[in-house]
Amino acid sequence: MRVTCQLFGDTVAGVPPAPQSRIRDLIGERPLSARSVLASALLGADRGRLTVAELVAVAALFGISAGAARTCLWRMVSHGELTANGGSYTLAGRLAERRQRVDAASRADDAATRWNGTWELAVVSLERRPAADRTELRRAAVALHLAELRDGVWIRPDNLDPQRLPPSRAVLDRQCIHFHDAATDIGAATVRSLFCLDAWARDAGTLIAAMNAELDAGAGGRDDSAASFTYGFALSIAVVRHLQLDPLLPGEFVGDDWPGHTLRSTYRRFDDAFKRRMASAFRRG
Fold first, then answer.
1. H or E element, residue 241
2. Does CATH number 3.30.70 belong to domain 119-182?
3. pLDDT, tens digit, for every residue of 149-171?
4. How far apart are CA 33 and CA 134, in angstroms?
């Protein structure tokens, strides 16, 4: 059996805030690029569309010049990530697909259905595949919340919509044979290891603590420096990335204290507060 965990972990939900070094591990320390800022702004926009003026204003909050922002937008259009129309930019291609995954992750509390004890399996049916196809399949399977039992065999409890995320589903359709309502004798301990539940929960606790700390700091007023906006933005990106990795397992495997719902509800409060803060900065600017 192949079990690979790709998460971090040092804290649990409900414990005191994690050390800053732990939070830095989760959000990363690389500077935010113009592309990261602009793509994330569009991913968080109501309809995945913003005007040039709005995007340039967002970039300015992070110390990115108008010229650099406009050049980056042009490059994103040429790479098929955005479309331009009437002075506005809209997500396209893989960024549009990512928006679907982000939206699904934020609504995940309503995604899972009652579990009848059966499993979903996707088994690779092709004998030889190029490396690019293998990578594409792995990304699609992870987006669909499947775990790799062994090479070429992906599995999860059959409690999610089988038609979820059509672009990712199409990748599996091209490379795999699907099984639904399957029976297995996989035990709870194996599921916990296979889906890296302890690591996911610990990282969720770290991110919840970090967001609560930011919300508490904001209640007392704070500076609007580029560094402050950058930290909040990077934290938001880390939370969204982590939400997409929630395996959305039935309660039989995660229990009542699973921090998924708390992470989503805290993120909604954090995201609303951060957007209000940016809007206030726009008005003052």
1. helix 226-243
2. yes
3. 999 999 999 999 888 889 999 99
4. 28
